[in-house]
Amino acid sequence: MPRITIGGRSVPQLAFGMGTSWSKRGDPALNRALVDTIKSAIGIGFTHLDCADAYGTEQELGVAIKEVEAEKGIPRSDLFVTTKCMKGTHDLPAALAASLKALQLDYVDLYLIHTPFNFKSADEISAAWVQMEQLQSQGLARSIGVSNFRPKELEVILKTCKTVPAVNQIERHPYLQRPLLTELMNKHGIATVAYGPLTSLRKATGGPVDGYIATLAAKYGVTEDNILLRWQMDKGIALVTTSSKPSRLEGYLQTTEFTLAPEESAEIDRLGAQHHFRAYLVGPGKFTPEEQD
């Protein structure tokens, strides 16, 4: 599987995510179906694993990691585990301690501030990042980063940080290409991890990329999902994907078997820029629907 570098470590570009339809939203019961799906995902090669305290699925990931080590001999060190803090951003040590307990782990490979929306000022953002740097220095998080941060919030961190965020995990797809944000992140060596990469197919059908994506899928003998994933992978972006169906996860791995021609990627860029759509975190105190960066 193609890889990118995050925090000095080579990481598979395709990650298995435990959000969206897997989110438990306060249900404390163990979701055995998710545990088994995580184990299946690891078994077919998804060693980059993405969860968050807000999803309520850290418990399942922890159980799956223990079971694949016991049953298949896959050690924890072969896995790259990401989790995120949504609500505990003013006491990140306590938030990470709770996540590690749920995960049954001594450390995570990547710890993210899930959104900037709980902060009321630049000073609060800066203070939170100091805590993140301390967690990294203590070895509790091998790398640290953010999620859903816009240029204005990243700039706050970049002004005073000792450690530049390794990652900004953002919604990104043909209809939300984030050019200003991408330029800033590239300038400072901040890796892009995209969630919602299939949004144009799942939530925004009927737009200008549909016909071209279908044409490319027929040309390469793959699915339209594969084309959308490959479009971003060719740009060096890691992608969070998910499914409850092992067959679909196996299908995502076909994305590694071809590359798009530069002119094909550029055409997706061009067509996608003709339409704007944001699927996640839209509402009062969050993103406005028309917001690009």
UniProtKB/TrEMBL annotation:
CDD domains: AKR_AKR3C2-3. The record marks 84 as: Lowers pKa of active site Tyr. Residues 18-271 form the NADP-dependent oxidoreductase domain. InterPro entries: AKR (IPR020471), AKR3C2/3 (IPR044494), Aldo/ket_reductase_CS (IPR018170), NAD(P)_OxRdtase_dom_sf (IPR036812), NADP_OxRdtase_dom (IPR023210). Its EC number is 1.1.1.307. The lineage of its organism: Eukaryota, Fungi, Dikarya, Ascomycota, Pezizomycotina. One of its GO terms (molecular function) is oxidoreductase activity, acting on the CH-OH group of donors, NAD or NADP as acceptor. It catalyses: xylitol + NAD(+) = D-xylose + NADH + H(+); xylitol + NADP(+) = D-xylose + NADPH + H(+). SUPFAM superfamilies: NAD(P)-linked oxidoreductase. The active site is at 55 (proton donor). Transmembrane segments: none annotated. This is D-xylose reductase [NAD(P)H]. Keywords: Oxidoreductase. Substrate binds at residue 114. Catalyzes the initial reaction in the xylose utilization pathway by reducing D-xylose into xylitol. Xylose is a major component of hemicelluloses such as xylan. Most fungi utilize D-xylose via three enzymatic reactions, xylose reductase (XR), xylitol dehydrogenase (XDH), and xylulokinase, to form xylulose 5-phosphate, which enters pentose phosphate pathway. It is an enzyme of class 1 (oxidoreductase). The keyword Cell membrane does not apply.
